[in-house]
Every structure is written in structure tokens, then in C-alpha cells.
């Protein structure tokens, strides 16, 4: 009889004997999506993405699909700005208006 891996992991976690050594898929995805960004832009995009996922002092956490969609939609603009700027503080209003950035409600 084959048991689903997820069930086995849950039982082992409840027993306190499971030690997972794999990196969560979100972390792998985030590293890949931030690749190629200027360091100052990358750090702000990472912070923003983590606040979307985890919530913050003034925001509720979003569903993971919403987080993935938001960064995926904003990535082309972030890559373009990384070719010209070192940090998001350098991005102008006109730069922002030139892209349809995602809105998370």
C-alpha cells in the first residue's frame, strides 16, 4: 500500500522526528525571479514580495498565486530599470507610467 508523501511527512512532523532539508519552492522561485536585477532594485523587490506573501504591520498576507502574479508582471519593468538605475529611488514617475505595473487589492 502506497501512502502519499504529504501524509507521511505530516505524521513524522507531529511526532517531532521530521527534518526537512529541501528549500521551499517559493524561495527557489523568488531567487530565479530576482535574478538579473540591480542589487538595490533586487533588495526592494524582494522585500515587497515577502511583505505581499507574509503580510506586514499595515498589510494582510496575500495568496501565493497573487504574489507570484504580481512579481511576474512587474519583472519586465524591474529588469529595464536595472539597466539604467541602481535603486528604485532613481525611477521617475515617467518610468512608472511607461509600464502597466500590477496592482494588488
Give your account of this protein's structure.
- By secondary structure, the protein is an all-alpha fold.
- The protein has one domain.
- It is 60% helix and 0% strand.
- The chain has helices spanning 5-15, 25-34, 39-54, 64-84, 93-97.
- Helix 3 (39-54) packs antiparallel against helix 4.
- The chain is elongated.
- The model has no long low-confidence stretch (mean pLDDT 86).
Based on DSSP secondary structure assignment, what is the total number of beta strands?
A: 0
Taken as a percent bin, the fraction of beta residues is under 5%
The helix fraction, in percent, is 55-70%
Average pLDDT confidence is 86
Q: Rough shape?
A: elongated
**Head-to-tail CA distance between termini:** 45 Å
Q: Tell me the radius of gyration.
A: 18 Å
Count of distinct structural domains: 1
The biggest sheet amounts to: none
Task: Please mark out the parts with pLDDT under 50 across 5 or more consecutive residues, or reply none.
Answer: none
Element-by-element helix/strand order: HHHHH
**Class derived from helix and strand content:** mainly alpha
Q: Count up the helices.
A: 5
Question: Could you give a short description of this structure?
Answer:
The protein has helices at residues 5-15, 25-34, 39-54, 64-84, 93-97. By secondary structure, it is mostly helical.
Amino acid at each position: 500500500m502506497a501512502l502519499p508523501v504529504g501524509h507521511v511527512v505530516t505524521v513524522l512532523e507531529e511526532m517531532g522526528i521530521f527534518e526537512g532539508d529541501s528549500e521551499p519552492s517559493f524561495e527557489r522561485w523568488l531567487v530565479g525571479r530576482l535574478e538579473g536585477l540591480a542589487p538595490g532594485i533586487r533588495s526592494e523587490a524582494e522585500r515587497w514580495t515577502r511583505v505581499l506573501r507574509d503580510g506586514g504591520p499595515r498589510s494582510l498576507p496575500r495568496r501565493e498565486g497573487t504574489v507570484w502574479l504580481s512579481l511576474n508582471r512587474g519583472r519586465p519593468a524591474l529588469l529595464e530599470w536595472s539597466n539604467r538605475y541602481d535603486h528604485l529611488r532613481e525611477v521617475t514617475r515617467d518610468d512608472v507610467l511607461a509600464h502597466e505595473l500590477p496592482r494588488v487589492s
